[in-house]
Input
Amino acid sequence: MGAVEKPRDALPVTAGWEYASSLEGREIVSFEERYGLFIGGDHVTPRSRSWFTTVSPSTEEPLAEVAQAGPRDVALAVEAAQEAFERWSTWRPAERAKVLFRIARVLQERARELAVAESLDGGKPIKESRDVDLPLAAAHFFYYAGWADKLEYAFPGRRPRPLGVAAQIVPWNFPLLMLAWKIAPALACGNTVVLKPAETTPLTALLFADVCRQAEVPPGVVNIVTGDGSTGAHLVRADGIAKVAFTGSTEVGKAIQRELAGRDIPLTLELGGKAANIVFDDCALDQAVEGIVNGIYFNQGHVCCAGSRLLVQESIHDQLVRKLKRRMATLRVGDPLDKNTDVGAINSKAQLDRITELVQSGTDEGAELYQPPCRLPEKGWWFAPTVFTNVAQSHRIAQEEIFGPVLSVLTFRTPDEAVEKANNTMYGLSAGVWTEKGSRILWMADRLRSGVVWGNTFNRFDPASPFGGYKESGFGREGGRHGLEAYLRFE
Ligand code: NAD
Output
């Protein structure tokens, strides 16, 4: 009997191995039973007398009660921020820098606790909150601390001045990181802020309030108002704000833009995406497979710049899809607090319903679905890593943002065709190009209508690098020197 031939690139670890669980200690974080709003440096009871419960998406267990801020609460927060602005904006810039440095240090010191809180409230794997969200959030504060006393050098001859109170609204996919992207540049430029976290993930913003106290941020410089979309709408409408910065869906971004029409308030919008991850036949294929997996299954695909459309050169399609499926079979889906987990829980029931509906549309429209065998936990909200082949440009799964662990595979023959297909979307946030040729990466980057283009990598972030979109992915940039501009006026 001849020996059974094993595929050369098969991973032996997939055959019958079980990982022992390695749980991060939940006890490092203790939530209050009920949180008030953080206004003027204190946790205050909301005037609305209204609360809601935030739950863990991996277990559906209630974690804490959180205030639902009404219009009066929002007005109080804006007043506190206005009052604080009078002093904060006149501080010596080097003193403001020290406050930002202190925030960064406290974030580092409390990184483990905050990472656990992020994974509990949001469902993302602890290895991501620990190794990505927290280090990057701290890095943002370090980076903008460095700019605080150098604004005159950042914009020579333009006499930069702060705007006033920045109204900032963030989504649920990177709660603390998006907070850092917003608060760090605003404070470095001498503004004060009222920030509204997303309703499904308010807890790390509330813990951040405590970080601010520890870092001796003056009262009123940072205010946190929790609540759902209606709280966000009150904040956008509030008198006394001088800037709106929004990260979230394109639909809500457009509503905010309409609301601000006719008011002299600068706006930045960081919205949705449908990134193309473009793989040429001369690339290092195994590295590309890692990049594809990281591009779409990182944070369950709840990533605005996720590589949700894989454009693969036709000649390597079958080989690449085979390798990809094999790699997908090694992904571990489960408890976000387990250090071995690769794919955690879906953030909410509403998001799970949306993913399920879009995946159904993919099957109905004729695409071919593959999910590796994996046992999903009974409680909580879960979706198995999914890849669709035989996808047409017109399919909803190729056009709409799914915001879940779902990849759509399309093919191309020439670089021109890759560019055309990649740009055939209403979005323009990010893209990836995999090829051995540096010149081709530059040629592609020139033609792709995306704010960010990664070459032979994906989902890399750095505070010094500006991030933002074209088309319906929004406008304005966060990060880098560009990120300062959104929080300044020039005399
Ligand atoms: P969402 O638009 O539903 O909500 C975002 C935030 O806006 C939440 O805090 C929400 O409470 C608030 N909000 C809702 N309605 C509002 C209104 N009418 N006025 C003011 N605020 C309102 O988006 P989401 O579902 O939380 O987040 C997912 C979306 O965010 C995706 O489309 C994703 O691509 C996008 N996103 C973009 C970036 C980026 O940098 N471009 C980063 C992360 C997420």
